[in-house]
Specification:
Layout (H helix, E strand, L loop, with lengths): L1 H19 L2 H22 L12 H12 L4 H7 L1 H9 L2 H30 L4 H17 L1 H10 L5 H19 L2 H7 L13 H16 L1 H5 L6
C-alpha cells in the first residue's frame, strides 16, 4: 500500500513542480496581482458610496485558472512521457491518481494565494476575501472534468481556455434558445453575494464533479499503451 501511495505522490509532486515553474504560472501570478491591484485601486480611490462589486477578483481568478489549471496529459503524450511511465515505472491507475491529486492540490494552492492577496488588498475584509475565494474555487472545481476532457480530446496545454470559450458559446446558445439563466441555475452558479447558504447547490455539484473525474479513466486509458 505504501509503495502504491508513494508512486501516486511522486507523480503528483512532479506535476505540481512542472505547473508552478512554468511560464504559464508566472503569467497567472502576474496577471492575478495586476488585475486585483487595479480593482482595489479603483475601489479605494472612489468616493463613497463605493461600488458593491468583486473589485476585479473574478477576472483575476479566471485569468489565473485559465493559465494554471491543467493535468499535463497533453504535454506528457507529446513527449511520450506517459507511455514511458506506464510501461516502466507505474500503472495507468496510479498515473491517473497522481495527475488528479496534482490538479486538486494546485487548485487549493491557487485558492490560498487568492485569499491572501484579496485579504491584504482589501485591508482585512475577510468576508469579501472568503466569499470570492470560495465561490471561484468551487467554480473551478466544477469544471475540472471538462478541463481533463478538453486535454484528452485536443492537443492543448491550456485546456482551461478551451473550457472557458466553450462555456461562453454555451451561454450564447442558451440565450438564443431560451435564457442563459437556465444554464446558470443548472450548474448552481445562481448565487447571492455574501449569502454563503446560496453556495450549497454549487458546492454539491463541485463535489460530484470531482467524483466524475474518476469516470473519465476509460477515456484516458485509451491514450495509454497496454501493460
Amino acid at each position: 500500500m505504501s509503495g502504491r501511495l508513494s508512486a501516486v505522490v511522486a507523480i503528483a509532486r512532479f506535476e505540481i513542480r512542472e505547473q508552478w515553474r512554468s511560464r504559464a504560472a508566472w503569467i497567472a501570478a502576474i496577471g492575478f496581482i495586476v488585475l486585483l491591484a487595479a480593482g482595489h485601486w479603483s475601489y479605494w480611490t472612489t468616493l463613497p458610496p463605493r461600488p458593491d462589486d468583486d473589485r476585479l477578483f473574478g477576472h483575476a481568478y479566471l485569468l489565473a485558472a485559465i493559465a494554471l489549471l491543467r493535468f499535463g496529459t497533453s504535454r506528457d503524450h507529446e513527449l511520450g512521457f506517459d507511455e514511458y511511465l506506464v510501461t516502466n515505472l507505474t500503472t495507468p491507475a496510479r498515473y491517473l491518481a497522481g495527475k488528479l491529486l496534482a490538479a486538486c492540490a494546485s487548485l487549493a494552492a491557487l485558492g490560498g494565494i487568492a485569499f491572501a492577496a484579496a485579504l491584504a488588498l482589501s485591508l482585512g475584509e475577510w468576508r469579501y476575501a472568503v466569499w470570492y475565494t470560495v465561490l471561484f474555487t468551487l467554480v473551478s472545481q466544477l469544471f475540472l472534468p471538462a478541463v481533463l476532457l478538453a486535454e484528452l480530446l485536443f492537443r492543448t496545454r491550456l485546456p482551461a481556455a478551451v473550457v472557458f470559450f466553450g462555456f461562453v458559446v454555451a451561454l450564447a446558445v442558451a440565450r438564443a434558445v431560451s435564457s442563459p439563466m437556465v444554464l446558470v441555475t443548472a450548474l448552481g452558479l445562481d448565487t447571492e453575494r455574501f449569502a454563503f447558504e446560496t453556495l450549497a447547490p454549487l458546492a454539491r455539484r463541485a463535489v460530484g464533479s470531482t467524483l466524475l473525474l474518476g469516470l473519465l479513466y476509460p477515456v484516458w486509458r485509451l491514450r495509454l499503451p497496454a501493460r
